[in-house]
Target: YibL family ribosome-associated protein
Amino acid sequence: MSLKQDLQQLHNRLDKAKRKLDAARGRNDNQMISRFTDEISNLEKQVTSLKGKQQYEDSKEKKRLQDMPFSREITKAEQADIGKLKKSVRGIVIVHPLTKIGKELRLDAMTGFAPKEF
Model:
């Protein structure tokens, strides 16, 4: 599975454990309370670990894009036929400003990153 799916699955398990912990506290069931508090702490550690891994992957992708020798904004005409642009320019990576990578790069418009000028 991808990091995003694993993270979502862990968040779902964490929410379920928190709801069960609240129910156990309502019943004053000490054995279940201790079980769910341990489970919650383990899940939170896993979530923190996955978020760190995800941040590392994102920064690695950001660095790879910044190291490409050529980048420029994509014109409206090129955006209209993006498939043609991708076929004509080998190795181009197009980043939208509203994606996570686009926000990290602080882009204002759709930008293409390529190993050579296009």
